[in-house]
Each structure stands twice: as C-alpha cells, then as structure tokens.
Amino acid sequence: MEIEIGTTCLLLIVLAFLAAIDVAFGYLSDVGLRRLVADHEDRPTVATSFLTEILEDRPRFRFTLSTAIQILLVAVSVLVTSITLRAFPNFT
Hints:
The chain is mostly helical. It has one domain. Helix content is 84%, strand content 0%. It starts with a helix and ends in a 5-residue tail after the last helix.
C-alpha cells in the first residue's frame, strides 16, 4: 500500500506540473510565442526549437497535453480507489 500512496503522490506532482504548463500556454497568444522564438533566434537552443515546433502545430501540442492530463487523472482516481478499498475493507 505504501507503493500505491507514493505513486499517487508522484502522479499528483506530475499532474500539477502539466496543468501549470497547460494554463501557461492557454494564456500565451501566437504573437507572444513568436516573440519568444524571435528573441532567441540568434543562439538557437533546444527550447527555441521546441517553441518553434509548438508554434507550427499548436493544436497538436494542446491535444497531447490534455490527453496526458486526462490519463493521469484516471490513474490517480484508480489508485485512490484502490487505497481506499484496502484501508477500509469493511465498507465494500
């Protein structure tokens, strides 16, 4: 049961991180994203190429992010249900 609790906590941390990224990109307009890419064009990095790729296909990135969040929500729900059923066996 300790492994399930630890896994649930880890998944909740990842879920919070992905949700923060989703909210941040929700507030970022295409113009803002283009400015971020343009500001760092002189010295290309991995982040610049990643932002350029997001700019080219923004709906795919949002879909992937939303799918990952939903999968994590289902996993956390299953783990919490499993922990609850083990902790309180008399209520089944």
